[in-house]
């Protein structure tokens, strides 16, 4: 599955469970490990987990692969590794503190 189709599936899955502030960052000029990072915010740890589960289900249903999921125990910040796309689902305070958007955009 190409990255653009994968991104569309991910965005739809995130919007379905009401994620907000969804940001897609192309990182192909920075790293060869993956092509895009998607960052989304959730209002609770329960919602971060639901969002991560929905992303996994939708990607698998479309024939994609889920390589790993990190952060499920705490739920503040979940990372879903889909190969060419890495999805970060974060609580707003965690997202603000780590500011991944600025980190990846400044280097891009």
TrEMBL record:
GO biological process: cytosolic ribosome assembly; negative regulation of ribosome biogenesis; negative regulation of translation
Gene Ontology terms for molecular function: ribosomal large subunit binding
Pfam families listed in its UniProt record: RsfS
Record has Glycoprotein as a keyword: no
Major subcellular site: cytoplasm
Gene3D superfamilies: Beta Polymerase, domain 2 (3.30.460.10)
Subcellular location: Cytoplasm
Keyword annotations: Cytoplasm, Repressor, Translation regulation
One GO cellular component, as annotated: cytoplasm
Subunit structure as annotated in this protein's UniProt entry: Interacts with ribosomal protein uL14 (rplN).
Entries under NCBIfam families matching the protein: rsfS_iojap_ybeB
Protein function: Functions as a ribosomal silencing factor. Interacts with ribosomal protein uL14 (rplN), blocking formation of intersubunit bridge B8. Prevents association of the 30S and 50S ribosomal subunits and the formation of functional ribosomes, thus repressing translation.
Family of the protein in this entry: Belongs to the Iojap/RsfS family.
Protein name: Ribosomal silencing factor RsfS
Source organism (scientific name): Nitrosomonas ureae
